[in-house]
Description:
The structure holds two protein chains of two kinds. By secondary structure, chain A is of the alpha+beta class. Chain A has seven helices and twelve strands. In chain A, the strands form three sheets. Chain A has a five-stranded antiparallel β-sheet with strand order 1-2-5-4-3. In chain A, strands 7-9-10-12-11 form a five-stranded mixed β-sheet, covered by helices on one side. In chain A, a hairpin with a 2-residue loop joins β11 (399-405) and β12. In chain A, α1 packs antiparallel against α2 (122-170), α3 runs antiparallel to α4 (243-273) and α4 runs parallel beside α7 (385-396). Helix content of chain B is 43%, strand content 24%. A five-stranded parallel β-sheet of chain B has the order 2-1-3-6-7, sandwiched between helices. Chain B has two domains: 2-119, 3-Layer(aba) Sandwich (Rossmann fold); 126-222, Winged helix-like DNA-binding domain superfamily/Winged helix DNA-binding domain (Arc Repressor Mutant, subunit A, Orthogonal Bundle). The model of chain B has no long low-confidence stretch (mean pLDDT 86). The longest helix of chain B has 16 residues, at 190-205. By secondary structure, chain B is of the alpha/beta class. At the A-B interface, α3, α4, α5 and α6 of A face α1, α7, α8 and α9 of B.
Amino acid sequence: xxxxxxxxxxxxxxxxxxxxxxxxxxxxxxxxxxxxxxxxxxxxxxxxxxxxxxxxxxxxxxxxxxxxxxxxxxxxxxxxxxxxxxxxxxxxxxxxxxxxxxxxxxxxxxxxxxxxxxxxxxxxxxxxxxxxxxxxxxxxxxxxxxxxxxxxxxxxxxxxxxxxxxxxxxxxxxxxxxxxxxxxxxxxxxxxxxxxxxxxxxxxxxxxxxxxxxxxxxxxxxxxxxxxxxxxxxxxxxxxxxxxxxxxxxxxxxxxxxxxxxxxxxxxxxxxxxxxxxxxxxxxxxxxxxxxxxxxxxxxxxxxxxxxxxxxxxxxxxxxxxxxxxxxxxxxxxxxxxxxxxxxxxxxxxxxxxxxxxxxxxxxxxxxxxxxxxxxxxxxxxxxxxxxxxxxxxxxxxxxxxxxxxxxxxxxxxx
Amino acid sequence: xxxxxxxxxxxxxxxxxxxxxxxxxxxxxxxxxxxxxxxxxxxxxxxxxxxxxxxxxxxxxxxxxxxxxxxxxxxxxxxxxxxxxxxxxxxxxxxxxxxxxxxxxxxxxxxxxxxxxxxxxxxxxxxxxxxxxxxxxxxxxxxxxxxxxxxxxxxxxxxxxxxxxxxxxxxxxxxxxxxxxxxxxxxxxxxxxxxxxxxxxxxxxxxxxxxxxxxxxxxxxxxxx
Lengths: 415, 225
């Protein structure tokens, strides 16, 4: 529920409640005032009758008008003065009408009479109804105005909030842009924007620092690696070395090789993250895949893999270097993580690339397959290959999925 | 052949010069920007190995200096920053090649030899090792008069060996050279054996000597003694 809806609901219910109670009170007060007025008229009538009785010592004539009647009834004893509301049938209009009656005692020549003056309340009722209708109309109008005003005003007032919300949604740390402050005349929103601006600014600076650190650390490592590599290259020239030492040197080579590969992969991840590969070119993907396969077969010619291709001619606009790394890692994995006599199926359509290969099941949870440094115990790789693939896909807005069905590892990329 | 090594890491420049000396190159070193400028001013080199991140200046300015003085020294940039823009700028400023750190000395040796050979425009595109002749222009190989049919990879392999003649070249270096660094490490290098074996067989079948020796599983040596 939107704040506006919630606010409006509470607001309108409260308004209706207050207005209902208010108008009920209003109704009764007006009614009370009007009856009071009626009673005063009746009292004036009473005074007149009493004066007549006193001066003439006889009852005046009973009268009967449409809105006022005077009746005298002889009673055996003195009666108390009393106001009452009664309903009488109006035979002319076939309806019951409300009347206000004042009964009071008269003593004429020792005889007790009860005088009863009745006055129609219809006029009062009519007035009351009019007042109620006007009041109701005003209430409805007021509610309507309130609702509309709230709607328009609140929507306008909350506009900066939705704007800010959108900015938060659009915030990507890799874009290195703090959320901008929007100028709003509402203090709260300005504070919110200011706080967000400061927070994201800090985040961006921290991120930048970490990124630069990782970048520098990786670069700084290149020189010592180069030194180790060069010393190894010199060491193997030594003719005095025995096979045993050579074997150890080979292991050192492999370790340094892995280390530098790891370093390069980390740098590559940073570079993709920095959007350093934005220049796109039109690439023949089918051609690239075939080329990559040939390259791979070159180095794995003794594995006896059965390769099935179903490639439609597809051209995509993307960075050549990224495409190369993407295919290298995906196609490379098919060969590296296969079994002797296994299979590789590659299918390419204009919308999708599917790469399947036989291979031993993963030794970890499949959902973690694109995570950095996640690899099977057997793997000699860096554990970054698929993380790079994922990052490339993300940067190109492709989706990549992994599945393991019927002994086949399946990677699907939707362009 | 005279080589200038501009590199602030002494251990690295020592390695490079002692490797290149085996190829009978004369190596000079400069460990900072100003020393490098001075040496370039005083001498002519066949090839300059240039680390562009020097403590007291950007190596790229050395390239500008060379260009301004119409020097034709070959330049191979070696850089810890494997950055495309550095590479593009460097090549644009007249560098001949770009080699990111870390590298194998055999790769460096091959690139230096290639640069020097390209600089010598006296039409000598033939490399001779006894009766083995490699025509780097036509990309053909022959033993005496007899042509040897090599695949592209075998040709590249032979050329790489010949550039590092007399020195042991590690399998890792060869794999990286032929298949790029993604194949170089972590993977099994057994496939290399097949390629080397085929090359040896073809050379010997054409009547050549066995130029390529295996060195204890760590690499190979091309020798023409």
